[in-house]
Amino acid sequence: MRIQSTPQxxxxxxxxxxxxxxxxxxxxxTRRLVQLYAGLALYGASSALLVEAGLGLEPxxxxxxxxxxLTGLTIGAVxxxxxxxxxxxxxxxxxxxxxxxxxNVFVVGLAMDGALALLPEAxxxxxxxxxxxxxxxxxxxxxxxxxxxxxxxGPRDGLMTGLHRRTGRSIRLMRTAVEVTVVVxxxxxxGTIGVGTLLYAVxxxxxxxxxxxxxxxxxxxxxxxxxxxxxPHGAILRP
Length: 239
Fold this sequence. Notes:
- It is globular and about 45 Å long.
- Strands 1-2-3 form a three-stranded antiparallel β-sheet, with no helix packed on it.
- It is mainly α.
- The longest helix is centred in the N-terminal third of the chain and has 25 residues, at 29-53.
- A hairpin with an 8-residue loop joins β1 and β2 (15-18).
- It has helices at 29-53, 59-71, 75-88, 90-93, 99-118, 125-149, 155-167, 171-188, 195-214, and strands spanning 4-6, 15-18, 21-24.
C-alpha cells in the first residue's frame, strides 16, 4: 500500500498517512510488526477453532473448506492458494499490496493448519459451542490487531475495495456480492455453513471495531491513537 508522507508535526516527529490511518513514520515499527504477525497468526488459529466447532464457518473459509474437500489439500493450503489467486486479481484492479497483504496470504493459512494439527477433535455440543464462541471473539481480536498495524488490507478485502473503485458501486454491495458468491460456491463443494456463519456475520463488525480501538497504535505526534476513519478503504474489519 502506498504511503504518502506528511509534513513534520509540531513536535518535530514526521508522520505518514496510509489507507485512512494516521501512523507514525518511525518509533512504532516494532509494535506494528508484532501486531501484524500476532494478528495474522491468531486469525488462523481462530479459523481453526471454527473448523473444529463444525457449526459454520466465516464466508471465505466455507469456500476454502469446500475446495479442500474437492482437492484433498488442507484447508490452510487452500487458503494460501486462493489468497495468492485473489492477489493476482489486484493487477487489473490497479491495487498495490502492502507487507500485511502479502503476509496475510501465507501466515493465516500456515497458522490455521498448525492449530488444526494441535486441536483435539470436538464431538459434543458442550465443547463445540464454546469453541465457536471463542473462535468468533478471537477472530475479532485478531482482526483488530492486524488492521491497527496498518500494513495494508488482506487480499480479499483489497479485492472488494478494488471492485468498488473500478465499478463505482458501494463497498457494501461489492462485499455482499463477493461473499454470497464464495459462500454458495463453498457450500455446493461441501463447505460448512450454519449458526456459526450467522453468528460471525452479525458479530465480527462490532467485535473488530472494539478491538481495533483497543489495539490502536499511538501516533508519535500527539499521542493519539491510530483508528479507522472515514471511508473503509483502509479497513473493512477483516483480513
